[in-house]
Amino acid sequence: MTTKKTNPRKDFSQVAHGIFQKAIGEAPQEPEIDPKKKAAIESGRRGGIKGGAERAKKLTAEERSEIAKMAAARRWGK
User: How close are the terminal C-alpha atoms of the chain, in Å?
Assistant: First the structure.
């Protein structure tokens, strides 16, 4: 089983500095994303959101059950 990567947490001084910058209006600007990449990101997100639900609608109860059994076997048994 793979382990989940966690985001590194900011320490107290980094958080305080960010709050201070926002308070005085000097918040760092976010990097500009290329319009082509932005469109690809949005397109992928839309497909990802509805993808699983659409696939589940097309499967029969037996197919869903078989997929669930295979997933459980991989999760628990090696």
Answer: 10
What pLDDT digit, counting tens, does each position of 41-77 carry?
A: 888 888 778 888 888 899 999 999 999 999 999 999 8
**C-alpha count within 13 angstroms, C-beta hemisphere, residue 78:** 1
Q: Is residue 68 part of a domain?
A: yes
Q: How many whole angstroms separate alpha carbon 10 and alpha carbon 78?
A: 37
pTM of the model: 0.39
Its domain, for residue 42, covers 34-78
Residue 51 lies in a domain: yes
